[in-house]
Amino acid sequence: MEQELKDRIMEALENVVDPEIGVDIVNLGLIYDMKLDDDGIVWIDMTLTSMGCPMAGMIVTQVQEAVKDVPEVNAANVNLVWSPPWNKDMMSRYAKIALGMK
Q1: For a Cys-Cys bond, which of 6, 37, 42, 48 suits 53, CB 3.0-4.6 Å?
Q2: Is residue 41 part of a domain?
Q3: How far apart (Å, rounded) are the C-alpha atoms in residues 19 and 58?
Q4: What is the pLDDT of residues 22-43, one digit of tens each?
Q5: Contact 30, 48 (CB under 8 A)
Q6: pTM of this prediction?
């Protein structure tokens, strides 16, 4: 996938906010990988901040809806993965500042 398209998909995903934390999933570092197939289906490997996240279904649905705004994307398949486990070091500087962390 070309970088410009990947950037636009990531930009769309910045609109998906983890409701328990209040920061978007991109800046939290929850997006691990993505691929776009010839049918315009984007395959996204992502994680959540905890395995028992009660908002998992809602977040997955929001991811699928957000990427539909990118013209090249017809649909999204989200694969929740737990390896490597998410940790606070995966957050962007922006997320750390927003959450009052150093």
Answers
A1: 48
A2: yes
A3: 9
A4: 999 999 999 999 999 999 999 9
A5: yes
A6: 0.93
